[in-house]
Amino acid sequence: MLENAPGKQKELRYLMHPILFKLGPISIHSYGVMLALAFFSGVLLVRRQARREGIDVENILDLSFVILISAIVGSRALFVLLNIKDYLAHPGQIFMLQQGGLAFHGGLFLALASGIWFLRRKRMKVGTTADLVIPYVALGQAVGRIGCFLNGCCYGLPTNLPWAITFPPKSPAHSHFLDASLHPTQVYQLLANLFIFVVLIKLRRRSRYQGQVFLRYLLLYGVFRFLIEFLRGDNPPILFQLTISQVISLAIFLLATASMVILHTRKV
């Protein structure tokens, strides 16, 4: 067990670097770097695919920035609301994004609303464009979870499993559980998002209706997030022993399932 392997624990600690390096007084945080890498790599891949499918590349680039801004604002807003007591005591921390603190579901909803508004304004097909973009959203999430791991946020509950990890002092996980060995839930979510990405790429080649790939993403993400939340140590339960993320994930799963049944029936 990891508790009996101090050398291994020490080695794992060195894998976590909230601050990658410093440029004079400026600290470059791993969380922000990974988010930037996730976004720009995703944009490049979406742009290439849009070209292949004959979709206006400029509109796709504009859409990407609309989604980026909306996702950051929405995810930060939800995270602040879920931790409102802490931020009322330290309001200046609301804008400290480099230290982590994004709630994905808030970003998903605002990005979805903003994206639909943009696509309708440009008279682009919502379902087709969503199917084009969403696999790379899943891939970007996987990259972003590396930032969570390096930052020590989105951490798991204590466990004795051999792949359990400890986090260094001053990290969010350490401030909660100290030197306890925790589930690497960041890695679980990384692997889940990579799996979703592969499934969506394969499905895109044989989808039967517009929006099918996007709805499959919602379904798969809802399932994985719901299950992984049972192992998270930073989200307290709020309803029937479920966390807010589980409640939202369950709602997303049911909505996606109902939508897929309706659209499938129409195609039969």
Question: Keyphrases for this structure?
Answer:
5% strand; mainly alpha; single chain; disordered N terminus; 2 domains; globular
Could you walk me through the main structural features you see in this protein, from its secondary elements to its overall organization?
The protein is mainly alpha-helical and 268 residues long. The protein has two domains: 16-124, no CATH class; 167-268, no CATH class. Helices cover 65% and strands 5% of the residues. It has a two-stranded antiparallel ribbon. It has a two-stranded antiparallel sheet with strand order 3-4. α6 (126-151) runs antiparallel to α8 (185-204) and α9 (212-228) runs antiparallel to α10 (244-267). The longest helix has 26 residues, at 57-82. The chain is globular.
Question: Topology, please?
Answer:
Blueprint: H1 6-13, E1 19-23, E2 26-29, H2 30-52, H3 57-82, H4 84-89, H5 104-121, H6 126-151, H7 172-177, H8 185-204, H9 212-228, E3 237-239, E4 242-243, H10 244-267
Antiparallel strand pairs: 1-2, 3-4
Helix pairs in contact: 2-3, 2-6, 3-5, 6-8, 6-9, 8-9, 9-10
